[in-house]
Amino acid sequence: MYQKRYWRDPMFEAVDRLANVVEPRGKKLVEVALAWVLAQPGITCAILGASKLEQFTESLRGANVSLDEEERKICDDLWYTMPRERDPLLARR
Q1: By C-alpha distance, which of 65, 72, 69, 62 is closest to 18?
Q2: For residues 75 and 19, is the Cβ–Cβ distance under 8 A?
Q3: Alpha-carbon dihedral of residues 32, 36, 37, 42, nearest 10 degrees?
Q4: Is the C or the N end of the chain the one with fewer CB within 10 Å?
Q5: Sorting pLDDT into bands at 50, 70 and 90, what band is 11?
Q6: CB–CB of 82/18 below 8 Å?
Q7: Which domain of life is it from (predicted)?
Q8: Residue 61 and residue 53 in contact, taking contact as beta carbons nearer than 8 Å
Q9: How many angstroms separate the CA atoms of 34 and 59, rounded?
Q10: In whole angstroms, what is the distance from residue 67 CA to residue 18 CA?
Q11: Taking every pair of C-alpha atoms in the chain, what is the biggest distance, in angstroms?
């Protein structure tokens, strides 16, 4: 299910575009992702997925990351233009 939903060229291209903006600024993708999610209206918490303590610790740093206008805009643009599979079975999982 995960590969069907996310392992597609447009997803990889979106990650590359975001990385090209944030990594030169010293920010990691996981930090930016969490910071962006937490900045969304109505969001009071985010669910983190990690299989190792190091991944969890790295993700948590995003709670202290501030995104500037350009970073927020690229995150928004990528999210809202991402192709989505319209499969009701996937949506129920």
Answers
A1: 72
A2: no
A3: 160
A4: C
A5: confident
A6: no
A7: Bacteria
A8: no
A9: 7
A10: 12
A11: 39
Contact 67, 32 (CB under 8 A): yes
> Ramachandran region of residue 7, left (φ > 0), alpha (ψ -120 to 50) or beta?
beta
| Verdict on whether the full-model pTM lies above 0.90 | no
* Mean model confidence pLDDT for the chain: 85
- CA dihedral (59, 62, 68, 73) positive or negative: positive
The two three-digit tokens of residue 25, written as one number:
């600024």
Q: Tell me which amino acid residue 52 is.
A: K
Tokens for 5, please give them: 């939903």
